[in-house]
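Priority: medium. Attachment 1 of 2:
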């Protein structure tokens, strides 16, 4: 499962808080643990096998609603447990990666009103816990956790600092704007009102980031508008084949600029590779979904 091959549109309620101190950066590489054992749940939800062969998956978070189309169970687990990389997920049973599902869920009006009063990061965490409850109910999913040292990337400022294209938004705008991130599979990300911590989470686990978890270490506060364009990893391979005469000509927008180069040249950011303890999931039990 590579997210580069997916058309994913995530409408987030809020950005995850930026993390600067080294011990806290390690915590962001771990999976969230609910403080309350009575996790919140959706009022009503349907789960069914996807009838279409979409490239997907497509995720949408909106007021009172959470929906996903054409998603393997691994994608739902990734969201529910804030898993950033395939390194953190088990490889079996095989059907959790091959079979795709559609999910449509809603919360009560009372829950929606309560969510409006939560700080931004807590709102997103509430949805994660609701999806987790759904997976436990419909798939009888039971997981445990282990620590494992894995390769990660730290997202840091490049030598000359952030570029003008990384445009900060005002605190007033941040209060009412919904963070949005779209694109990636075609080599372009359009971000609106997005924190660096949320951006680091979003680009984690993709082929262009070597399937590593990415941890924000920029120290940049607040949220930003920006656009980032590059040639995806699969297009890079096509360019190489075309240049050597082994493949067809590259796509018109394939400039050969990698994500790492684009980050530094366009936004003034870069990746620093390292290894760190990361929490991984172990699936202790999982069933095919129960009837709605």
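Attachment 2 of 2:
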């Amino acid at each position: 499962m590579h997210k580069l091959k997916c058309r994913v549109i995530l409408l987030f309620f809020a950005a995850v808080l930026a993390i600067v101190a080294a011990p806290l950066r390690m915590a962001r590489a771990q999976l969230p643990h609910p403080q309350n054992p009575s996790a919140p749940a959706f009022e009503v939800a349907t789960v069914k096998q996807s009838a279409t062969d979409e490239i997907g998956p497509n995720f949408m978070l909106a007021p009172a609603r959470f929906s996903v189309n054409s998603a393997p169970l691994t994608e739902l687990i990734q969201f529910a447990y804030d898993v950033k990389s395939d390194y953190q997920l088990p490889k079996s049973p095989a059907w959790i990666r091959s079979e795709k599902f559609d999910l449509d869920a809603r919360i009560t009006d009372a829950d929606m009103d309560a969510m409006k009063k939560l700080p931004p990061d807590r709102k997103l965490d509430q949805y994660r816990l609701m999806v987790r409850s759904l997976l436990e109910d419909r798939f009888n999913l039971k997981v445990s956790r282990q620590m494992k040292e894995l390769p990660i990337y730290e997202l840091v400022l490049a030598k000359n600092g952030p570029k003008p294209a990384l445009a900060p938004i005002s605190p007033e705008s941040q209060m009412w704007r919904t963070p949005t991130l779209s694109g990636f599979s075609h080599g372009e990300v359009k971000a609106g009102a997005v924190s660096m911590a949320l951006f680091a989470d979003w680009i984690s686990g993709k082929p262009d980031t070597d399937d590593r978890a990415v941890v924000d270490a920029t120290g940049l506060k607040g949220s930003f508008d920006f656009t980032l364009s590059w040639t995806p990893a699969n297009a890079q391979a096509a360019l190489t084949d075309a240049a050597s005469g082994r493949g067809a000509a590259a796509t018109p927008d394939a400039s050969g600029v990698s994500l790492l180069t684009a980050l530094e040249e366009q936004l003034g950011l870069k990746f620093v590779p390292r290894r760190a303890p990361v929490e991984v999931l172990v699936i202790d039990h999982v069933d095919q979904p129960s009837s709605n």
